[in-house]
Design brief:
about 0% helix, 4 strands, 4-stranded antiparallel sheet, about 20% strand, about 90 residues, mainly beta, elongated, single chain
Length: about 90
Amino acid sequence: MIATSPELTQSMRTVTDESDQFRLSCLPPGTYRVVFRSPGSPEVERDHVTVHAGRITPVFVKLQPPPAPEEPEPTGVLVSGATLDAAAGG
């Protein structure tokens, strides 16, 4: 997760904890743009997230799981009972 705001001199970043939750602490009060990223998934953005002093600000998002890998195309056909010998040359 990346949080940016005019109140920050640089962006704040964090990764998920063991419960797959993001948490940024000690943010100054203000309005933030928050970007959630997960490898292989589209980014999810939330603009105008307001953080107040002394309060927890929950932001709920659902990250899509990465797409399942495609099955490789078969490179040949094996016939039951056949023996293949790579050194035979055909």
